[in-house]
Amino acid sequence: MAGGSIPSTPLLKDELDIVIPTIRNLDFLEMWRPFFQQYHLIIVQDGDPSRTIKVPEGFDYELYNRNDINRILGPKASCISFKDSACRCFGYMVSKKKYIFTIDDDCFVAKDPSGKEINALEQHIKNLLSPSSPFFFNTLYDPYREGADFVRGYPFSLREGAPTAVSHGLWLNIPDYDAPTQLVKPLERNTRYVDAVLTIPKGTLFPMCGMNLAFNRELIGPAMYFGLMGDGQPIGRYDDMWAGWCTKVICDHLGLGVKTGLPYIWHSKASNPFVNLRKEYNGIYWQEEIIPFFQTAVLPKECTSVQKCYLELSKQVKAKLSKVDPYFDKLADAMVTWIEAWDELNPSGSAAAAVNGSAKK
What we know:
Oligomer: single chain
Radius of gyration: 20 Å
Number of strands: 10
């Protein structure tokens, strides 16, 4: 596969949707055309729904704006954030595919150290289609990659691994830093390409970034709720991390794996650290109590589905985090609303009816 080209029939062509949240014209897709053009896109337009967003010719897409979200979800639309990239999770809900890849509109194609363009989507698919090893750490990283294996001392009973639910990719150029780190390191750029994928061990949380992320929607989709953030809320920029903490606790409970590392994308522009600080200010304080909450969260064995796990987590959020701030009471209610909306659009045991967006190509 020389020169960044992809096979004529790409992997999982009919089983994967690409979800993109945006407030602007999607010119960035031109760079991704060789990799994305044969896939279906779900574009979630944030901000003013009367604005027309331009999508380059030749892409197969659905476009949803705030009016569509209100029309499709009715009163339950209250659980979808406004003026925040968390709106992307609406795309997860309306997708009918087994897999999701989500990317931000300021993410471009990166190159590996040899100068070859990286097909990020293909690497995510490889991660998702191979098992994870959450129960025992393999010091040679991902033992399922070509040229690697389990090292001496790795229990044979655990070598079958666990199904991979999440593939978390990384970024060259602009790192995913919080506002205080951005302020003290304004010129720092990530130039380090590490050719590695590893499974995040069971019992270990991680800060999930939504700008280069893929997951198995059938295994973990209902937990991928990016919370109540942005307009009208006392916090922003914690949407993907909230989803990551909930998802990891549920993956650990259900015996599923989360991988991080490859693939890299090129993150082209840093957001304003002063604007970010306003959005993150509460979260920087709150996370000192949120993290211990998730580290000690236990789900009862009766929680055998993602939905049951998520509803149980929402109860624990209400019981234990509401004392931190009344916002968490509201967030816990939104978590319940999210699951109700998910189940309405994705009735179990039958093919869900297709939901039409405002624009199709």
